[in-house]
Amino acid sequence: MIAKIGHGANMTGALAYNQLKVDNENGQILDTQRIIETPDGIYTVAQLYRSFEPYLTANKRTEKPVLHISLNPDPADKVTDENFRQIAKDYMERMGYGQQPYIVFKHTDIERTHIHIVSTNVDRYGVKIPDTFEKLRSMDACRALEQKYNLIPATEKQRTGNEQVFRPVDYRAGEVKSQVASVVRHLPKYYQHPSLGAYNALLSLFNITAEEVKGELHGQPKNGLVYFALNEQGEKASNPFKASRFGKHAGLEELQKHFAQAKEQMKKDPARAILKNTIEAAMHTATSEAGFKKQLMEQGINTVVRRTDEGRIYGMTFIDHESRSVWNGSQLDKNLSANVFNDWWKEQAVEQRQDTENTRIKAPLQPTGKGDAEEKEETHKLFDFLNAAQPSDDFGWIDGLGGLLPEAQGEDYEEQAFANRMKKKGKRKSPGRQQ
Fold it and tell me: Which portions of the chain have biased composition (kind: Basic residues) (predicted)?
Protein backbone atom coordinates (compact mmCIF):
# COMPACT_ATOMS: atom_id res chain seq x y z
CA MET A 1 0.00 0.00 0.00
CA ILE A 2 1.27 3.46 -0.91
CA ALA A 3 0.37 6.55 1.13
CA LYS A 4 0.57 10.13 -0.11
CA ILE A 5 0.29 12.92 2.48
CA GLY A 6 -0.48 16.48 1.44
CA HIS A 7 -0.59 19.59 3.63
CA GLY A 8 -2.41 22.68 2.38
CA ALA A 9 -4.30 25.81 3.32
CA ASN A 10 -7.50 25.35 1.29
CA MET A 11 -9.98 23.12 3.11
CA THR A 12 -12.81 23.97 0.71
CA GLY A 13 -10.66 22.91 -2.25
CA ALA A 14 -9.78 19.56 -0.68
CA LEU A 15 -13.42 18.85 0.15
CA ALA A 16 -14.65 20.00 -3.27
CA TYR A 17 -12.16 17.76 -5.09
CA ASN A 18 -13.42 14.68 -3.27
CA GLN A 19 -17.10 15.66 -3.25
CA LEU A 20 -16.96 16.10 -7.02
CA LYS A 21 -16.00 12.43 -7.31
CA VAL A 22 -19.09 11.56 -5.24
CA ASP A 23 -21.35 13.82 -7.28
CA ASN A 24 -20.08 12.25 -10.52
CA GLU A 25 -20.71 8.76 -9.11
CA ASN A 26 -16.99 8.01 -9.11
CA GLY A 27 -16.77 7.89 -5.35
CA GLN A 28 -18.59 7.77 -2.06
CA ILE A 29 -18.19 8.80 1.55
CA LEU A 30 -17.23 5.63 3.40
CA ASP A 31 -16.83 6.96 6.91
CA THR A 32 -16.71 10.10 9.02
CA GLN A 33 -15.40 10.96 12.46
CA ARG A 34 -16.52 13.98 14.46
CA ILE A 35 -18.40 15.27 11.43
CA ILE A 36 -21.86 16.84 11.93
CA GLU A 37 -24.43 14.36 10.62
CA THR A 38 -27.19 15.24 8.18
CA PRO A 39 -30.70 13.72 8.36
CA ASP A 40 -30.42 11.95 5.01
CA GLY A 41 -26.68 11.15 5.14
CA ILE A 42 -26.04 13.34 2.08
CA TYR A 43 -23.45 16.10 2.41
CA THR A 44 -22.48 19.27 0.64
CA VAL A 45 -19.07 20.90 0.78
CA ALA A 46 -20.49 23.67 2.98
CA GLN A 47 -21.94 21.14 5.44
CA LEU A 48 -18.66 19.22 5.65
CA TYR A 49 -16.68 22.41 6.11
CA ARG A 50 -18.67 23.39 9.20
CA SER A 51 -17.21 20.47 11.15
CA PHE A 52 -13.65 21.71 10.53
CA GLU A 53 -14.39 25.40 11.00
CA PRO A 54 -13.84 25.49 14.81
CA TYR A 55 -10.41 23.89 14.39
CA LEU A 56 -9.41 26.23 11.59
CA THR A 57 -10.69 29.28 13.48
CA ALA A 58 -8.77 28.24 16.60
CA ASN A 59 -5.60 27.73 14.55
CA LYS A 60 -2.87 29.88 16.07
CA ARG A 61 -0.13 30.03 13.43
CA THR A 62 -0.05 26.89 11.28
CA GLU A 63 0.12 28.00 7.64
CA LYS A 64 -1.07 24.67 6.22
CA PRO A 65 -3.69 23.22 8.57
CA VAL A 66 -5.39 21.01 5.95
CA LEU A 67 -4.49 17.32 5.79
CA HIS A 68 -5.22 15.43 2.57
CA ILE A 69 -4.11 11.78 2.53
CA SER A 70 -4.55 9.08 -0.11
CA LEU A 71 -4.09 5.38 0.70
CA ASN A 72 -3.56 3.18 -2.35
CA PRO A 73 -3.58 -0.62 -2.04
CA ASP A 74 -2.22 -2.75 -4.88
CA PRO A 75 -4.77 -3.14 -7.75
CA ALA A 76 -4.76 -6.90 -7.09
CA ASP A 77 -5.90 -6.40 -3.48
CA LYS A 78 -9.59 -7.05 -2.89
CA VAL A 79 -10.42 -4.58 -0.15
CA THR A 80 -13.98 -4.37 1.17
CA ASP A 81 -15.57 -1.10 2.26
CA GLU A 82 -15.40 -2.24 5.87
CA ASN A 83 -11.70 -2.98 5.51
CA PHE A 84 -11.15 0.45 3.99
CA ARG A 85 -12.88 2.01 7.01
CA GLN A 86 -10.68 0.06 9.42
CA ILE A 87 -7.52 0.79 7.42
CA ALA A 88 -8.30 4.52 7.50
CA LYS A 89 -8.99 4.42 11.23
CA ASP A 90 -5.83 2.45 12.00
CA TYR A 91 -3.69 4.68 9.79
CA MET A 92 -4.96 7.89 11.39
CA GLU A 93 -4.35 6.42 14.86
CA ARG A 94 -0.80 5.43 13.99
CA MET A 95 -0.05 8.87 12.53
CA GLY A 96 -1.36 10.72 15.61
CA TYR A 97 -4.59 11.98 14.03
CA GLY A 98 -6.95 9.46 15.62
CA GLN A 99 -8.87 12.09 17.62
CA GLN A 100 -9.25 14.53 14.72
CA PRO A 101 -12.39 15.12 12.64
CA TYR A 102 -11.97 13.45 9.26
CA ILE A 103 -13.87 12.13 6.24
CA VAL A 104 -12.98 8.98 4.30
CA PHE A 105 -13.78 9.12 0.57
CA LYS A 106 -13.53 6.07 -1.69
CA HIS A 107 -12.53 6.80 -5.29
CA THR A 108 -13.48 4.39 -8.06
CA ASP A 109 -12.62 6.47 -11.13
CA ILE A 110 -9.42 4.53 -11.83
CA GLU A 111 -8.51 0.85 -11.83
CA ARG A 112 -6.82 1.13 -8.45
CA THR A 113 -9.70 1.68 -6.00
CA HIS A 114 -8.33 3.80 -3.18
CA ILE A 115 -9.36 6.14 -0.41
CA HIS A 116 -8.74 9.79 0.40
CA ILE A 117 -8.88 11.15 3.94
CA VAL A 118 -9.53 14.85 4.52
CA SER A 119 -8.72 16.16 7.99
CA THR A 120 -6.85 18.91 9.81
CA ASN A 121 -3.49 18.78 11.54
CA VAL A 122 -4.41 21.30 14.25
CA ASP A 123 -6.28 20.15 17.35
CA ARG A 124 -9.39 21.73 18.89
CA TYR A 125 -7.17 24.27 20.68
CA GLY A 126 -5.53 25.37 17.44
CA VAL A 127 -2.19 23.68 18.21
CA LYS A 128 -0.43 21.82 15.43
CA ILE A 129 -0.14 18.07 15.89
CA PRO A 130 3.55 17.04 15.64
CA ASP A 131 4.53 15.57 12.25
CA THR A 132 8.19 14.78 12.92
CA PHE A 133 9.53 11.98 10.67
CA GLU A 134 6.12 11.87 9.03
CA LYS A 135 7.23 10.03 5.90
CA LEU A 136 9.10 7.35 7.83
CA ARG A 137 6.19 6.85 10.23
CA SER A 138 3.80 6.65 7.29
CA MET A 139 5.93 3.96 5.65
CA ASP A 140 6.03 2.00 8.91
CA ALA A 141 2.25 2.34 9.24
CA CYS A 142 1.71 1.07 5.69
CA ARG A 143 3.95 -1.96 6.26
CA ALA A 144 2.06 -2.78 9.48
CA LEU A 145 -1.34 -2.40 7.80
CA GLU A 146 -0.25 -4.59 4.89
CA GLN A 147 0.42 -7.39 7.34
CA LYS A 148 -2.70 -6.79 9.42
CA TYR A 149 -5.07 -6.75 6.43
CA ASN A 150 -3.15 -9.21 4.26
CA LEU A 151 -2.36 -6.66 1.54
CA ILE A 152 0.28 -7.04 -1.15
CA PRO A 153 3.43 -5.26 0.09
CA ALA A 154 4.68 -2.21 -1.81
CA THR A 155 8.28 -3.35 -2.17
CA GLU A 156 11.14 -1.03 -2.98
CA LYS A 157 13.47 -1.70 -5.90
CA GLN A 158 16.52 -3.76 -4.97
CA ARG A 159 19.61 -1.81 -4.06
CA THR A 160 22.89 -2.66 -5.73
CA GLY A 161 25.11 -2.04 -2.72
CA ASN A 162 27.05 0.52 -4.77
CA GLU A 163 24.86 3.53 -4.12
CA GLN A 164 26.49 6.91 -4.62
CA VAL A 165 26.21 10.26 -2.92
CA PHE A 166 24.38 12.29 -5.55
CA ARG A 167 24.96 16.04 -5.51
CA PRO A 168 24.06 18.82 -7.95
CA VAL A 169 26.88 20.03 -10.15
CA ASP A 170 28.50 23.30 -9.10
CA TYR A 171 30.22 24.66 -12.20
CA ARG A 172 32.22 27.13 -10.07
CA ALA A 173 33.79 24.44 -7.91
CA GLY A 174 36.02 22.96 -10.62
CA GLU A 175 36.38 19.32 -11.65
CA VAL A 176 33.09 19.71 -13.52
CA LYS A 177 33.63 16.56 -15.55
CA SER A 178 33.99 14.48 -12.39
CA GLN A 179 30.88 16.07 -10.90
CA VAL A 180 28.85 15.26 -14.01
CA ALA A 181 30.27 11.74 -14.11
CA SER A 182 29.21 11.00 -10.52
CA VAL A 183 25.59 11.52 -11.60
CA VAL A 184 25.25 10.29 -15.18
CA ARG A 185 27.22 7.08 -14.65
CA HIS A 186 24.56 5.81 -12.27
CA LEU A 187 21.32 7.84 -12.32
CA PRO A 188 19.82 6.61 -15.66
CA LYS A 189 19.30 3.07 -14.44
CA TYR A 190 17.40 4.09 -11.29
CA TYR A 191 14.48 5.91 -12.94
CA GLN A 192 11.99 5.16 -15.72
CA HIS A 193 12.18 7.98 -18.28
CA PRO A 194 10.59 7.36 -21.71
CA SER A 195 12.32 10.10 -23.72
CA LEU A 196 15.33 12.37 -23.85
CA GLY A 197 13.14 15.24 -22.65
CA ALA A 198 12.07 13.25 -19.57
CA TYR A 199 15.70 12.27 -18.93
CA ASN A 200 16.70 15.95 -19.14
CA ALA A 201 13.99 16.91 -16.67
CA LEU A 202 15.56 14.46 -14.21
CA LEU A 203 19.10 15.69 -14.96
CA SER A 204 17.99 19.29 -14.45
CA LEU A 205 17.66 18.57 -10.72
CA PHE A 206 21.43 18.07 -10.77
CA ASN A 207 22.22 21.13 -12.96
CA ILE A 208 22.99 18.93 -15.96
CA THR A 209 21.55 18.64 -19.46
CA ALA A 210 22.17 16.26 -22.36
CA GLU A 211 22.02 17.07 -26.08
CA GLU A 212 21.93 14.78 -29.07
CA VAL A 213 24.55 15.51 -31.72
CA LYS A 214 24.53 14.30 -35.32
CA GLY A 215 27.29 13.96 -37.87
CA GLU A 216 29.06 11.63 -40.27
CA LEU A 217 31.94 9.22 -39.88
CA HIS A 218 33.45 7.72 -43.05
CA GLY A 219 30.35 8.76 -44.92
CA GLN A 220 28.00 7.07 -42.45
CA PRO A 221 25.52 9.03 -40.29
CA LYS A 222 26.53 8.97 -36.65
CA ASN A 223 24.54 10.06 -33.61
CA GLY A 224 25.85 10.71 -30.13
CA LEU A 225 25.19 12.49 -26.85
CA VAL A 226 27.02 15.25 -25.00
CA TYR A 227 26.48 16.58 -21.49
CA PHE A 228 26.73 20.13 -20.14
CA ALA A 229 26.71 21.62 -16.66
CA LEU A 230 24.06 24.31 -16.11
CA ASN A 231 24.11 27.52 -14.10
CA GLU A 232 21.34 28.86 -11.87
CA GLN A 233 19.38 30.12 -14.88
CA GLY A 234 19.49 26.74 -16.63
CA GLU A 235 22.05 27.97 -19.16
CA LYS A 236 25.05 25.96 -20.30
CA ALA A 237 28.00 26.72 -18.05
CA SER A 238 30.64 24.24 -19.25
CA ASN A 239 32.23 22.75 -22.33
CA PRO A 240 30.45 19.67 -23.71
CA PHE A 241 31.47 16.26 -22.39
CA LYS A 242 31.11 13.22 -24.63
CA ALA A 243 28.84 10.54 -23.20
CA SER A 244 31.49 7.91 -23.97
CA ARG A 245 33.55 9.32 -21.09
CA PHE A 246 30.90 8.28 -18.59
CA GLY A 247 30.24 4.66 -19.53
CA LYS A 248 27.71 2.93 -21.74
CA HIS A 249 24.69 3.68 -19.51
CA ALA A 250 25.18 7.39 -20.22
CA GLY A 251 25.38 6.91 -23.99
CA LEU A 252 22.64 7.47 -26.55
CA GLU A 253 22.38 3.84 -27.67
CA GLU A 254 21.77 2.49 -24.17
CA LEU A 255 19.47 5.36 -23.30
CA GLN A 256 17.34 4.75 -26.39
CA LYS A 257 16.91 1.13 -25.29
CA HIS A 258 15.95 2.39 -21.86
CA PHE A 259 13.45 4.88 -23.35
CA ALA A 260 11.71 2.11 -25.31
CA GLN A 261 11.53 -0.24 -22.32
CA ALA A 262 10.34 2.51 -20.00
CA LYS A 263 7.63 3.59 -22.45
CA GLU A 264 6.17 0.08 -22.48
CA GLN A 265 6.44 -0.47 -18.73
CA MET A 266 4.90 2.90 -17.90
CA LYS A 267 1.80 2.12 -19.99
CA LYS A 268 0.69 -0.37 -17.34
CA ASP A 269 2.35 1.21 -14.31
CA PRO A 270 -0.25 1.73 -11.52
CA ALA A 271 1.82 4.71 -10.35
CA ARG A 272 0.36 6.67 -13.25
CA ALA A 273 -3.14 6.74 -11.76
CA ILE A 274 -1.85 7.58 -8.28
CA LEU A 275 0.30 10.41 -9.60
CA LYS A 276 -2.57 11.79 -11.70
CA ASN A 277 -4.89 11.90 -8.69
CA THR A 278 -2.21 13.44 -6.49
CA ILE A 279 -1.56 16.24 -9.01
CA GLU A 280 -5.29 16.90 -9.48
CA ALA A 281 -5.76 17.13 -5.71
CA ALA A 282 -2.93 19.67 -5.47
CA MET A 283 -4.50 21.70 -8.28
CA HIS A 284 -7.70 21.99 -6.22
CA THR A 285 -5.94 23.14 -3.06
CA ALA A 286 -2.93 25.19 -4.21
CA THR A 287 -3.38 28.91 -4.76
CA SER A 288 -0.12 29.59 -6.62
CA GLU A 289 2.53 27.90 -8.73
CA ALA A 290 4.95 27.86 -5.81
CA GLY A 291 2.30 26.38 -3.52
CA PHE A 292 1.43 23.72 -6.09
CA LYS A 293 5.07 22.67 -6.45
CA LYS A 294 5.59 22.62 -2.71
CA GLN A 295 2.54 20.45 -2.08
CA LEU A 296 3.82 17.90 -4.58
CA MET A 297 7.35 18.05 -3.19
CA GLU A 298 5.99 17.16 0.23
CA GLN A 299 4.67 13.99 -1.40
CA GLY A 300 7.93 13.15 -3.14
CA ILE A 301 7.14 14.65 -6.55
CA ASN A 302 9.27 17.21 -8.39
CA THR A 303 7.68 19.55 -10.95
CA VAL A 304 9.77 20.79 -13.88
CA VAL A 305 8.18 23.67 -15.82
CA ARG A 306 9.52 24.72 -19.22
CA ARG A 307 8.76 28.17 -20.57
CA THR A 308 9.50 30.12 -23.73
CA ASP A 309 11.41 33.40 -23.54
CA GLU A 310 8.03 35.13 -23.51
CA GLY A 311 7.04 33.19 -20.39
CA ARG A 312 4.50 30.81 -21.91
CA ILE A 313 4.54 27.28 -20.50
CA TYR A 314 5.15 24.67 -23.19
CA GLY A 315 6.14 21.68 -21.07
CA MET A 316 5.17 20.15 -17.71
CA THR A 317 7.13 17.20 -16.33
CA PHE A 318 6.51 15.39 -13.04
CA ILE A 319 9.20 13.26 -11.36
CA ASP A 320 7.65 10.76 -8.94
CA HIS A 321 10.33 9.58 -6.54
CA GLU A 322 8.03 6.98 -4.97
CA SER A 323 7.78 4.97 -8.20
CA ARG A 324 11.01 6.46 -9.65
CA SER A 325 9.37 7.44 -12.90
CA VAL A 326 9.26 10.64 -15.00
CA TRP A 327 6.00 11.69 -16.68
CA ASN A 328 4.97 14.37 -19.12
CA GLY A 329 1.78 16.12 -17.96
CA SER A 330 -0.15 15.35 -21.14
CA GLN A 331 1.02 11.74 -20.85
CA LEU A 332 -0.87 11.49 -17.55
CA ASP A 333 -4.05 13.24 -18.72
CA LYS A 334 -5.09 15.92 -21.20
CA ASN A 335 -6.22 18.04 -18.23
CA LEU A 336 -2.60 18.11 -17.00
CA SER A 337 -1.12 19.46 -20.23
CA ALA A 338 1.11 22.52 -20.49
CA ASN A 339 -1.73 24.68 -21.88
CA VAL A 340 -3.94 23.92 -18.88
CA PHE A 341 -1.27 25.01 -16.41
CA ASN A 342 -0.36 28.04 -18.49
CA ASP A 343 -3.97 29.29 -18.44
CA TRP A 344 -4.50 28.34 -14.79
CA TRP A 345 -1.46 30.15 -13.42
CA LYS A 346 -2.09 33.14 -15.68
CA GLU A 347 -5.59 33.50 -14.20
CA GLN A 348 -4.21 33.14 -10.67
CA ALA A 349 -1.61 35.83 -11.34
CA VAL A 350 -4.34 38.23 -12.55
CA GLU A 351 -6.49 37.52 -9.47
CA GLN A 352 -3.53 38.02 -7.13
CA ARG A 353 -2.67 41.35 -8.77
CA GLN A 354 -6.28 42.45 -8.39
CA ASP A 355 -6.31 41.40 -4.72
CA THR A 356 -3.06 43.29 -4.15
CA GLU A 357 -4.46 46.42 -5.79
CA ASN A 358 -7.65 46.20 -3.74
CA THR A 359 -5.63 45.83 -0.56
CA ARG A 360 -3.56 48.89 -1.40
CA ILE A 361 -6.67 50.95 -2.10
CA LYS A 362 -8.24 49.96 1.20
CA ALA A 363 -5.09 50.35 3.28
CA PRO A 364 -2.51 52.39 1.38
CA LEU A 365 -0.32 52.98 4.43
CA GLN A 366 0.05 49.32 5.38
CA PRO A 367 3.52 47.84 4.68
CA THR A 368 3.55 44.85 2.36
CA GLY A 369 5.75 42.78 4.67
CA LYS A 370 7.04 39.26 4.10
CA GLY A 371 3.64 37.93 3.14
CA ASP A 372 3.90 39.41 -0.37
CA ALA A 373 7.07 37.52 -1.21
CA GLU A 374 6.78 34.20 -2.97
CA GLU A 375 7.27 31.40 -0.47
CA LYS A 376 10.60 29.64 -0.93
CA GLU A 377 10.32 25.94 -1.60
CA GLU A 378 11.71 23.71 1.09
CA THR A 379 14.43 21.22 0.35
CA HIS A 380 13.60 17.53 0.43
CA LYS A 381 15.65 14.37 0.64
CA LEU A 382 14.12 12.82 -2.44
CA PHE A 383 17.17 10.77 -3.41
CA ASP A 384 17.79 9.13 -0.03
CA PHE A 385 17.34 5.67 -1.52
CA LEU A 386 20.55 6.17 -3.53
CA ASN A 387 22.61 6.59 -0.39
CA ALA A 388 22.79 3.57 1.87
CA ALA A 389 25.99 4.44 3.67
CA GLN A 390 26.19 8.22 3.87
CA PRO A 391 24.27 10.50 6.28
CA SER A 392 20.96 11.66 4.87
CA ASP A 393 21.93 15.31 5.46
CA ASP A 394 23.89 15.12 2.23
CA PHE A 395 20.62 15.45 0.35
CA GLY A 396 19.44 18.83 1.60
CA TRP A 397 20.10 20.47 -1.76
CA ILE A 398 17.14 19.34 -3.85
CA ASP A 399 15.03 22.44 -4.44
CA GLY A 400 12.42 20.96 -6.78
CA LEU A 401 12.36 23.89 -9.15
CA GLY A 402 14.11 21.85 -11.80
CA GLY A 403 15.96 23.77 -14.50
CA LEU A 404 15.39 25.36 -17.86
CA LEU A 405 16.11 22.66 -20.39
CA PRO A 406 17.73 23.36 -23.76
CA GLU A 407 15.10 24.31 -26.29
CA ALA A 408 15.79 21.29 -28.51
CA GLN A 409 15.02 18.69 -25.87
CA GLY A 410 11.22 18.63 -25.65
CA GLU A 411 9.69 15.25 -24.94
CA ASP A 412 6.43 16.12 -26.65
CA TYR A 413 6.72 16.90 -30.38
CA GLU A 414 3.67 19.17 -30.40
CA GLU A 415 4.89 21.16 -27.42
CA GLN A 416 8.41 21.39 -28.82
CA ALA A 417 7.19 22.53 -32.22
CA PHE A 418 5.35 25.37 -30.52
CA ALA A 419 8.47 26.31 -28.54
CA ASN A 420 10.63 26.30 -31.64
CA ARG A 421 8.19 28.51 -33.52
CA MET A 422 8.28 31.01 -30.69
CA LYS A 423 12.09 30.97 -30.64
CA LYS A 424 12.58 31.38 -34.39
CA LYS A 425 11.27 34.93 -34.47
CA GLY A 426 14.07 37.42 -34.90
CA LYS A 427 16.79 34.77 -35.26
CA ARG A 428 19.16 34.84 -38.21
CA LYS A 429 21.27 32.11 -39.63
CA SER A 430 24.99 32.55 -39.15
CA PRO A 431 26.98 33.18 -42.37
CA GLY A 432 28.19 29.97 -43.94
CA ARG A 433 26.16 27.81 -41.55
CA GLN A 434 25.52 24.39 -43.00
CA GLN A 435 21.93 23.19 -43.23
Answer: 421-435
